[in-house]
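Tokens for chain A. Residues wanted.
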């Protein structure tokens, strides 16, 4: 579905000189610097995949999405999506994709969503019975019936975003771009949109590209994650692999039969560089690198009477924070699938 090869986007930015003299010189001779917003990006996506593209603000995600949707022309490299070159075959290409930008609306503000859908069907030349049945399915599964005839300007954010998703899918695209689709939405609306997207992917094999800062969206929808930093792809793999790579710390909570102090437990764990924290009168939490799990379990259970053990995985949210806090170290690491 998507094949990206050595994709690049560079911007020339005017460097303003300081002071009145500098401003005067800028009138006759401007200085520029080149910013590499996207740098040698390469990846492939199979039809029917649901994957997330994540990174800090300024990592190059939005620029990448704009090139993939045909809004921006690449400085170098190749894009092939569903057999099209987005910026060279834009008119035909856009009929095969759907796009939802969380901060931009494709609905007509003073019309009802139903009228907007009718106009979109005309734009995409969808006037047959199958098109109406598809529209009815979107209205039903996204639960739009109670407000479908109200003007868009009177809808809540959650209601409008569900209509935006329906509008993006009115022409039954093979590929759906979702840029922060659940930003600002309450938990119930988020869940409704996620459930619908999973159903859409299962029944229609729609390929979904998600960019988001909401980690719960990634966990609910995507198995594969691509991580960008400073325009480069620093990770391309499964969500589980991401957890292993950046979620390097494991926490185990031991419940003991008698009271055990931090110092007493630290003696048994001294070879393993563990962090020990009290949880309750009879429980201690031990934090250590994941590879030492068997050794730590063996050392503690061989030295003390343990009544319960709980192993806590690092949350995906914490992992993403770890990535963002260490990207200066990992920048330039070769991506792998």
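Reply:
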């Amino acid at each position: 579905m998507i094949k990206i090869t050595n994709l690049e986007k560079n911007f020339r930015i005017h460097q303003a000189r300081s002071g009145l003299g500098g401003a005067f010189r800028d009138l006759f001779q401007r200085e520029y610097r080149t910013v590499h917003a996207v740098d040698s990006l390469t990846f492939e996506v199979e039809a029917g995949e649901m994957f997330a593209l994540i990174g800090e603000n300024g990592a190059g995600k939005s620029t990448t999405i704009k090139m993939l949707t045909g809004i921006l022309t690449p400085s170098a490299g190749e894009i092939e999506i569903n057999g099209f070159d987005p910026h060279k075959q834009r008119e035909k290409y856009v009929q095969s994709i759907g796009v939802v930008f969380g901060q931009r609306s494709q609905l007509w503000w003073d019309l009802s969503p139903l009228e907007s859908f009718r106009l979109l069907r005309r734009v995409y030349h969808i006037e047959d019975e199958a098109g109406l049945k598809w529209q009815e399915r979107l209205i039903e599964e996204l639960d739009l019936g109670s407000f479908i005839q109200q003007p868009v300007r009177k809808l809540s954010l959650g209601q409008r975003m569900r209509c935006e998703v329906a509008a993006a899918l009115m022409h039954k695209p093979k590929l759906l771009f979702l840029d922060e689709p659940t930003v600002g939405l309450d938990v119930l609306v988020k869940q409704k949109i996620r459930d619908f997207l999973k159903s859409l992917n299962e029944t229609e094999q729609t390929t979904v590209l998600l960019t988001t800062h909401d980690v719960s969206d990634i966990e609910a929808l995507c198995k594969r994650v691509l991580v960008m930093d400073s325009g480069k792809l620093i990770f391309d793999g499964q969500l589980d692999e991401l957890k292993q790579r950046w979620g390097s710390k494991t926490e185990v909570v031991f419940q003991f039969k008698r009271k055990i102090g931090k110092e007493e437990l630290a003696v048994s764990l001294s070879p393993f560089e563990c962090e020990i924290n009290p949880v309750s009168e009879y429980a201690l939490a031990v934090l250590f690198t994941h590879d030492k799990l068997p050794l730590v379990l063996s050392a503690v259970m061989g030295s003390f009477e343990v009544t319960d053990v709980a192993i806590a995985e690092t949350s995906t949210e914490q992992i993403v924070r770890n990535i963002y806090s260490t990207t200066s170290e990992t920048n330039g690491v070769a991506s792998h699938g």
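Residues 187-204 form the longest helix (18 residues). The CA atoms of residues 255 and 307 lie 6 Å apart.
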